[in-house]
Write a structure and sequence with these properties.
There is one protein chain. Helices cover about 35% and strands about 20% of the residues. It has about 475 residues and is α+β, with helices and mostly antiparallel strands. The strands form four sheets. A seven-stranded antiparallel sheet has the order 15-12-14-13-17-18-16, with helices on both faces. Helix 1 (about 5-15) packs antiparallel against helix 3 (about 50-65) and helix 8 packs across helix 10 (about 285-300). The protein is globular, with a radius of gyration of 23 Å. The protein starts with a helix and ends in a 5-residue tail after the last helix.
C-alpha cells in the first residue's frame, strides 16, 4: 500500500473533489474490459489541469509509487489495470472538442472525447474522422491513441496513427512536451508523436491530441452477402482485393456469431449459413455504384446465397449492426467472453480461420469468429466461464496455439487491442527477445523509476535478473500465470 502520508500529499494536489479512495471507487476502477484481470488501486484521481498530472508524476518518482492512466476502461488487453501501490489517473472527464480547424482540416481534442462524439461533430461540417473502433460509442480518443486503435474502416483508411498530427503529453518525470502540429510536412528531429502512439500509457499521459480530418465521402453503399461455406466468403475477400477495389469496410462473421447476433438484435439474418460479409464502399457516387456492382458480381461468382443492399442510411445502419453487435451478442452466450485479435496477412485469412477452428475442436471449446477480413485482423472469441478452471486452462492453451499459428502465417499477436497484461507473455513469439530488450531500454531511459503504467507490454526486467520489486509482484503473477489468474 502507498503510505498514508503520501496519499495525503496526493489528495492535496487534486483536492477533495478530485481524489477518490473509498472501497467502492477502488473496486470500480480495479478492472477494465479485459476478462479475468483485476487489481485494486490505492486511489483514483481526476485531474483538472496538466500541472496536476505533472505534480503527481514528480511525486511518484520521489515516493516510488505507480501511476496508471485510464480513459473509459474499454480496453481488451488489460492496459489500464492497476498494479500494486498505484494511483489511477482518470481522463474521461476531459471531454471537450477544443477547435475544429476547417482551413487546416484538423481538430484539437481533449483525451476524454468519445470517438463517436467526434465523428458526429466533424461530420456535421462535411468532414470525416475515419478511425472507427467497435467500441466507438464509449471509447475515448486518448485511449485510441495510446492503443493505436483500428476499427471497421481500417482497410481503406488506416488506423489511429494515420490521423494523429500532434499531441501534448506529460512524460514520466513530470515534464510536459508538445510534439507535432498542423504543418503537413515536418521532419524536424525524431517523430516523437509516432513514438508515443501505441505505447499503451507506458511512456506518457496524453492531455491533448491534434487529429487530421478529411472531406466526408459524398456517397456510401452498404451490403451484406451470405455464404453456405466459410471458404467461399474468404475467396470473395481475396478477389475483391485482387480486383483493385478497396472497400471502406470488409468484415466477416461466422455461424456462431451470426446466430448470437440474430438472437440479440433480431435483424432477420439467416442462421443456417456458415458466414456473412459486411461490405461498404464510399467515395464519389459514380465510383461507388461501379465498385458496388463489381463486388456484387464477385460475391455471386463465389456462391453468395443472398446479397442485401441498403437502400438508404437507415437500412445501412441496420446492416452494420450485424457486425457492430458481434461482441455484445457473443457476450450474452456464456458468463465469460475472451475476445482476442490475432492478425495475419490478408492472403492467409482462410488458412488462419481453418487453424483456429481446428484448435478449438481439439480443445472442445466454444468460439465465435468475426473480424476485419479485409485487413487480416481476426477476432477469435472464446465463450467460457471463469469459474471453471479447467475451461480457462484450455482457453489459455488454445490462444497460445492460435497466436503461434498467426506468427507462423507471417502475422502478429495483436492488430489493434494492444499487448497490455493479457498478451504480455506472447510478445516474444511475435518480435523476439532482442526487440523486447530494446523496448526495455527505451522504457528505462524515459521512465527509470518505472512509475508510469509499469509491467505492461513486457516485464520490467528479464527473468534471469531475479524477482521484480515487491510492489510489482501482482504483475509477476500475471506474467507467470499467462494472464489467466
Amino acid at each position: 500500500m502507498i503510505p498514508q502520508n503520501t496519499l495525503s500529499r496526493i489528495r492535496s494536489i487534486f483536492g477533495t473533489a478530485g481524489y477518490l479512495d473509498s472501497a467502492e471507487d477502488r473496486i470500480s476502477y480495479s478492472y477494465d474490459g479485459t476478462p479475468l484481470l483485476k487489481q485494486l488501486p490505492d486511489a483514483i484521481v481526476l485531474p483538472r489541469s496538466v500541472d496536476q498530472i505533472s505534480q503527481l508524476l514528480k511525486l511518484a518518482n520521489e515516493e516510488r509509487f505507480a501511476v496508471v492512466p485510464r480513459g473509459s476502461g474499454s480496453g481488451l488487453s488489460g492496459g489500464s489495470i492497476p498494479v500494486e501501490n498505484s494511483v489511477v489517473v482518470l481522463t474521461n472527464h476531459w471531454d471537450r472538442i477544443l477547435e475544429i480547424d476547417e482551413k487546416n482540416l484538423s481538430v484539437w481534442v481533449e483525451p476524454g472525447v468519445i470517438t463517436a462524439k467526434l465523428h458526429a461533430a466533424v461530420e456535421s461540417l462535411g468532414l470525416f474522422y475515419p478511425p472507427d473502433p467497435g467500441s466507438a460509442a464509449i471509447c475515448t480518443i486518448g485511449g485510441n491513441v495510446a492503443e493505436n486503435a483500428g476499427g471497421l474502416r481500417g482497410l481503406k483508411y488506416g488506423v489511429t496513427k494515420n490521423y494523429v498530427m500532434g499531441m501534448e503529453v506529460v512524460l514520466p518525470n513530470g515534464e510536459v512536451i508538445v510534439t507535432g502540429g498542423k504543418s503537413v510536412k515536418d521532419v524536424a528531429g525524431y517523430s516523437l508523436k509516432d513514438f508515443l502512439i501505441g505505447s499503451e500509457g507506458t511512456l506518457g499521459i496524453i492531455t491533448r491530441v491534434l487529429l487530421r480530418l478529411i472531406p466526408k465521402p459524398p456517397a456510401t453503399k452498404t451490403m451484406l452477402a451470405f455464404y453456405g461455406k466459410l471458404s467461399d466468403s474468404a475467396e470473395t475477400v481475396s478477389e475483391i482485393i485482387a480486383a483493385k477495389i478497396t472497400p471502406a469496410a470488409l468484415e466477416f462473421l461466422d455461424n456462431t456469431t451470426i446466430r448470437s447476433v440474430e438472437d440479440y438484435a433480431k435483424l432477420g439474418l439467416p442462421t443456417e449459413i456458415e458466414s456473412l460479409l459486411l461490405i461498404e464502399v464510399d467515395g464519389r457516387s459514380a465510383e461507388v455504384e461501379e465498385d458496388a456492382q463489381k463486388i456484387i458480381s464477385i460475391c455471386k461468382r463465389h456462391g453468395a446465397s443472398e446479397i442485401r443492399v441498403a437502400a438508404d442510411e437507415a437500412e445501412a445502419v441496420k446492416l452494420r449492426t450485424a457486425r457492430k453487435a458481434a461482441f455484445s451478442a457473443l457476450a450474452r452466450v456464456r458468463p465469460t467472453t475472451i475476445l482476442e485479435d490475432a492478425t495475419v496477412p490478408r492472403s492467409e485469412v482462410a488458412p488462419m480461420l481453418e487453424s483456429i477452428n481446428r484448435i478449438v475442436r481439439k480443445h472442445g471449446l466454444t468460439f465465435g469468429n468475426f473480424g476485419h477480413a479485409g485487413d487480416g485482423n481476426l477476432h477469435p472469441t472464446c465463450l467460457t466461464d471463469e469459474r471453471d478452471t479447467k475451461q480457462i486452462h484450455l482457453a489459455e492453451r488454445a490462444f497460445d496455439e492460435i497466436f503461434s499459428e498467426a506468427v507462423r502465417f507471417g502475422g502478429t499477436i495483436t492488430g489493434e487491442h494492444g499487448v497490455g497484461l493479457a498478451k504480455l507473455r506472447f510478445l516474444e513469439k511475435a518480435v523476439g527477445e532482442p526487440a523486447i530488450e530494446m523496448m526495455r531500454r527505451i522504457k528505462a531511459s524515459i521512465d527509470p523509476n518505472a512509475v508510469l503504467n509499469p509491467g505492461k507490454i513486457f516485464s520490467l526486467r528479464p527473468r534471469c535478473e531475479g524477482p521484480l520489486p515487491t510492489n510489482r509482484d501482482q504483475i509477476k503473477k500475471f506474467v507467470d500465470a499467462g494472464a489467466f489468474t
